[in-house]
Amino acid sequence: MLQRIKKVDGVIILILVLLMGISIFSIYSVTHGRQDIDGYHIQMLKYYVLGFIAFFLLSVFDYRLLVKYGLYIYIAGIGILLLVSLIGAVKNGAKGWIIIGSLSIQPAELFKLVLILFLASVLVRKNKHTLQFWRDVIPLSLLALFPFGIVIIQNDLGNAFAYIVILLGILWIGRIKFTHALIGFVLCGGALAGFIVSYTQYHDQTVHFIKETIGREHFISRFDPWLVPELASSDASYQTRNAKVAIASGGMSGEGYMQGSSVQSGRVPVTYSDAIFVQIAEEYGFIGAAVLLLLFFILIHRLILIALSCRDRAGPFLIVGIVAMLLYQILENIGAYIGLMPLTGITLPFISFGGTSVLINMASMGIAMSVLLYGQDVEDDLPVPAIPPVRNKMLDY
């Protein structure tokens, strides 16, 4: 065990500590003195303490056991998502929370890690064989689209699309055929382009379809400021419009810590949570935002190095799933506030206030560290899969 612990990546731990510091100081900047949210930085520190405990426990826990029982973890995760649909509380228009006393849990956040573990557990049993379209790609896609549909019904666009990104990332290194990947890329790109054209050129008809047929009026306030800002209502565009002003006013070096004119006056909502990048850009400027992105880049680079050095088949699947999850959240969160992406309410990893988000991200880092500690074992030493691969009986004759 001590020999394994010596392999711990100190750079990743250092980056996590730095991200924790940025998060706590940024949250304090926009919550101090406000009666309803004062003290959130202390709460965030508590979340991080729990997150580091989860990180170190999962680091020394053999991740291959989690992969072994990936199917059962997936079933349990689906059950929790369905439970949320029945008894979940509504926050910010999304029915995605389970309230236990003063504790709020967002299972859709948790399921991102569940999906990574499940997909890795399935693909590791393929034994390096090329994925077949009807036998492998379609069933895996349906198993990812099922929770996607549940979370879409809960009005949580951000986490729902994270499942698709995770699926695509893991399939990409799962030995999918190039032709199948190309067809999928063309179909997804065509669908996105078709939606954008329909929404901009036939706005009224598309909005009517989303409201009346799909019954998701909440989505209009997400898409209008992104695609047709000139048609968006003042309420729908309020957050993104003021966010752009705040980011621009930060300039190169920022207006100064706790001196941001927009974030300190409350013109940008939820700057302690989803919009925390706006506080960083306004108060720390381009330099502060660039430093944050550099830390994310180094973290992701270290994760990729772990995947490349891993001798176990499951390890790279897990790492790529985690990297896809983080990249999506970073690009979606920041892109939403500079007008490149729709506003979906996704958190900025490790920075935004939120207990579930911090715990899941720290747990993901713990699993990645476990891959580093245990992924060098030879494949013959790996745990036996819980579900043996199905044999083709025709080969027995």
Features:
397 residues; mainly alpha; three-stranded antiparallel β-sheet; 16 helices; disordered C terminus
Largest beta sheet: strand ordering: 1-2-3
Helical amount: 55-70%
Which band does the percent of strand residues land in? under 5%
Spans of at least 5 consecutive residues whose pLDDT stays below 50 are: 380-397
Q: Termini separation (Å)?
A: 47 Å
In brief:
This protein is mainly α and 397 residues long.
Task: Describe what this molecule looks like in 3D.
With about 400 residues, the chain is mainly α. It contains 16 helices and three strands. It has helices at about 1-5, 10-30, 40-60, 65-70, 70-85, 105-125, 135-155, 155-170, 180-200, 205-215, 220-225, 235-250, 260-265, 275-310, 315-335, 355-375; strands spanning about 90, 95-100, 105. A three-stranded antiparallel β-sheet has the order 1-2-3, covered by helices on one side. The longest helix has about 35 residues, at about 275-310. It starts with a helix and ends in a 23-residue tail after the last helix. About 45% of the residues are buried.
Topology:
Blueprint: H1 2-5, H2 10-31, H3 40-59, H4 63-68, H5 70-87, E1 89-91, E2 94-100, E3 103-105, H6 107-123, H7 133-153, H8 157-172, H9 178-201, H10 203-214, H11 220-227, H12 234-249, H13 261-265, H14 276-309, H15 314-337, H16 355-374
Antiparallel strand pairs: 1-2, 2-3
Helix pairs in contact: 2-3, 2-14, 3-16, 5-6, 5-7, 6-7, 6-8, 6-15, 6-16, 7-8, 8-15, 9-10, 11-12, 12-14, 14-15, 14-16, 15-16
